[in-house]
Amino acid sequence: MFTHKEHIFFDLDHTIWDFDRNAKETLQDLYVKYKFEDLCGDADPHHFITAYTSNNHRLWGLYHHNQIDKPTLRRLRFEDTFTELGIDPNLFPWNFEEEYLAVCPNKTNLFPNAHETLTYLKERYTLHLISNGFQEACERKLAGSQLADYFETITISEIVGINKPDARIFQHALQVGKANLDTSIMIGDNLDADVRGAQNFGMDAIYFNPLLAEVPSDVPHSITDLKELQRLF
């Protein structure tokens, strides 16, 4: 279907690197280490992790549109989680956050068929990465998961100073990658930042939808497993 394409641009978190799974493993360990069962009144970290995941996703949406900055995102995702669980946010131990940031990016859980699919595509296309993640964390994720060598160029919003869905980051990535708009395509999990960001810039996009969410009518291409890309390309 997309054999006329030459350049494939990928998102990283939630598309290749399984953010939620890696975060869950980290939070489970830290929940026990910091004895959050006493604060939360629950030996099972499920409710804490669920609340954190929801708040983190919401705050990243604000960050994408420059409505909050990096320190605010990192502070509120835990403060808001405590508040949602009925716990005084002032009781949150900030060593927990620092240790989370030290441990989580070193996790290496990827979505199924990631290496297989990237290997297949790299033999046929020029691959690039565009991430709204933070520089240090992105670099550690790429190195630890042995992903960096797949990509000809890596565009990180914190370095560029522009976040997806802003068209300027897609323009920057095309220029750095020496790619043409017509022969380029974006693949990502975030409808706002990745898919519509690319579409509004005039670039084709594929929605990565492993959770089987409803696909909007204005999104013509979607996959639920990275391996499907081997059929499309």
Automatic annotation (TrEMBL):
Domain of life the protein comes from: Bacteria
Pfam families assigned: Hydrolase
InterPro entries from the UniProt entry: HAD-like_sf, HAD-SF_hydro_IA, HAD-SF_hydro_IA_YjjG/PynA, HAD_sf, PGP-like_dom2, Pyrimidine_5'-ntase_YjjG
GO molecular function, one term: 5'-nucleotidase activity
PANTHER family: PTHR47478, PYRIMIDINE 5'-NUCLEOTIDASE YJJG
Name assigned to this protein: Noncanonical pyrimidine nucleotidase, YjjG family
Protein source organism: Sphingobacterium corticibacter
